[in-house]
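Entry 14. Structure prediction run on the chain below.
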Amino acid sequence: MPADIPGIHHVTAIASDPGRNYAFYTERLGLRLVKRSVNQDDVSVYHLFYGDRSGTPGTSMTFFPYTDASNGRVGTGQASTVQFLIPEDSVEYWVDRFESDGVDADEPRERFDDTVIPFRDPEGLPLELVARTDAPAGDPPDGTVPAEHAIRGFFGVTLSLSTASQTGNLLKTMGFQPTRSSKDRQRFEAGGDLGYVVDVLVDPEAPQGEPGAGTVHHVAFQVSDAEQAQWHDTLVDRGLRPTQIIDRKWFKSIYARTDGGVLLEFATKSPGYTVDEDVDELGERLVLPEWLEDRRDEVNRYNNPYDSPRPSESPRTEGAGPRLSRGPPRATAGA
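Output returned:
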């Protein structure tokens, strides 16, 4: 049996406009664009990675921006909310920032003794800031948010299910143990110092989620290189149908869909985003894994890579590939 999973590696969602996506996550949330690449299973689509200064696992929010994608529907069978961690004394700062920037946000609320600020990105993706006294100092980027108030990475995710499936047992196998519960929310928490959480909501009346802009594609969890093959076998033993190990250049991945319909990824922490770029140069150019370099001209025709993205400018998108209506990214898509 492999060791318990320490927490989340990254979360990948679907967007439509890459320029608008870039502006929100770098300007409004103060994250850094740490990797600019393409969906390795569909090179007509960007893959944009945001995170702390060096893209540390556990801080990386990534997107497939399908140009002119239709809106998805947040519902069961998905990760329905992504939760970011902030320091406890930063709540007022973020409330004021969201109000002045016109971010679609709700009033702060209490959940399991934490202050939570729900908000949405421009695509309608549900997000939350969770304020904690134990928020680590982290490695904040030199961005638009002062370091003392910067997002510290993920707090966790919320999974929405229509029935009480075997997802809870799978989370326990992964090392997430139930810690708190309310009427419709069961919290599972990883061991170790990071304390990542997965909240499970069960609502048989909720609509089934539909992929599209504003929805999460998959949640990736951290595993070691040495134990990734063991996790493959463990998932098989749990009755799931995981993919084989797939090399994504910056990590290796296994994908499996739970019986509740949520797509999970099990990604290695190494070699990381600095394997092909220096820390100070992360995100400044379009990078491709070596097995896609001979398709760079094709990538350029689709995406017209933008060399210096600016918040006020959207990248050129003519010829940026087919609409999402032809189908969302495959289960093994991206990272």
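Residues 276 and 296 are 16 Å apart (CA to CA).
Filed with the rest of this week's runs.
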